Please model this.
Amino acid sequence: MQTKEKRIFGKIFMALAIIFFYLPIVFMVVFSFNDSKSLTVFTGFSLRWYETMLKNHSMMESLYVTLIIAVVATVVSTIIGTITAIGMVYSKKWVKRFIQQVNDLPMMNPEIVTAIGLMLLFITFRIERGFTTLLLAHIAFCIPYVMLSVMPKLRSLDPNLADAAMDLGATPWQALTKVIVPQIMPGIVSGALIAFTMSFDDFIISYFTTGQGVKNLSIMVYTMSKRVNPSINAISTLVVVFITIGLLLANIVPIIREKTKKKSQQQDGTFQKRMGKGPKMVIGLLVIVLAISLFSYKKAAEDNKPFVGQTLHVYNWGEYVGENFVSGFEEQTGAKLVMDNFESNEQMYIKVANNESYDILVPSDYMIQRLIQEDLLQPLDKNRIQASLDLLDPNVLDKPFDPGNEYSVPYFWGSVGIVYDKRKVDIEDLEKEGFNIFLDPKYKGDIYLYDSERDSFMMALKALGYSMNTENPEEINDAYNWLLQCVQTMKPEIVTDEIIDNMAQGRKALGLVYSGDATYIMTENENMGYFMPTQGSNLWSDGMVIPKNAQNVDLAYEFINYTCQYEAAYDNSSYVGYTASNMEAQDELAEGEFAGIDSYVPRSGNPKDEVFTYNENTRKTFADLWSRIKVAASNAAD
Model:
């Protein structure tokens, strides 16, 4: 009875384990056919995201790069790893021990250490990071896994096998290829499969060793950390389908061969030969189908397009363009648009300050001011963009960080406010307390703080009646104590972009949020609202600028003019949720798709609303104090 119960328990456990591993994949496949952008609510069947995937230049190219890198790295690392492992077997003991230690070190090291080491190596030898460095890095970290798989098979072989083959007349090459390799083939195959999987899946090493817009799928998904594009479900589903077909072939073909073995022998082996060719033909067909799907998004450039054969390098925030923006620009100009993504203005600044070349940057207001002060931007030729400037909302033009828009053209703009659950938060509390609601004991443990020193200190300074651009040490210290009281008494959860999905699902009562994110949250959940305290807030804007070291200035101006047009601005804003700078697109979205969502268009007329100005001293002060606040929050949580 006990044995029977154990078997039942084992089956239940196995079933739960299978559900645990496969349910997320099923969920992903189902939502790849979802009609809406939602990742949690299925609104109807549609192939929308598969069409979007095929049109998305960056996504399809990232899949192409991922497959090419994985295949080439697998082939090269398998050859090198196998030859090295065989050489170890016939080496002296101290050589074996030394190579074994060298081989184990990369696998035992944290990936971040290997990634930084490879990055520094490429920088030291002044090798420009891109496809080549990415491939070399993948080959380097795949070799140890191949050797680890091959070595056990080699150890099980008779060490005199090669000598016996040569005694019988085989050359050293024949002894290697016809005797040793066939015996260790299972280890070689398993090593190759591990190498392919490791390469296909790698993010950390890839992130540090690539550049020039070359990115694999892992990096592409990482750039979607702010808001996951549902088309990633579609491309992931295709990968799962191809892997499933491959596994089915690997398991079904041997069974068919075994069943037809007797018949094939009676037919002089004819059928067996056909069966041997069959799987290869099927795999070849799959490769052809995959190649067609990969290249179907590419369109032949027309001779009459003005920038055929040229490439524009743009450095922008992740998930900051619409579904058709890149393909639309490339179709209009004939050029290729390579878009790298950054997470913060500071990350962008480091690359620009280190003289990495981009044709267009999209920094925020205070960072534009810094780049101007450090003479890192080109003044704009107004004759080339004046028609585009005339299309934009006057409220986002001629700001203090760039008077007269001499260096920048607005891209998106918005505000910072409070997103709240109407079922949990009384609007009278918000109107009465403003940002001080984050100190209200009624909402203890039910709030989010945004992990940004600038925005968090803005909230505290405004709650205390101070300017968010203050340089007064006493006012900054008061704001520090305000935030310290908040984290020690209110037990907030300090988050970044996960606040978007969390508030869309109503997990907390309220949180500090950017207006565009609030727009998305409110479209996903009608119970959510957006409130801007009368104490004032941050009215921010992001703009397009041309760095001094830009290589393709003419195409950069074409990008600016294209982005300012109604079609591109509407596509961008409707997808991302931030306020369009183009007046026509802004008005249409405010009255149509985002009607009734008051976070979409920033308010005007409040004299306490401000724009951040750059100040290096206060930036360092805020960063230092914010790190202390996060430590205090961690201690309070414990």
Residues 3 and 9 are 10 Å apart (CA to CA).
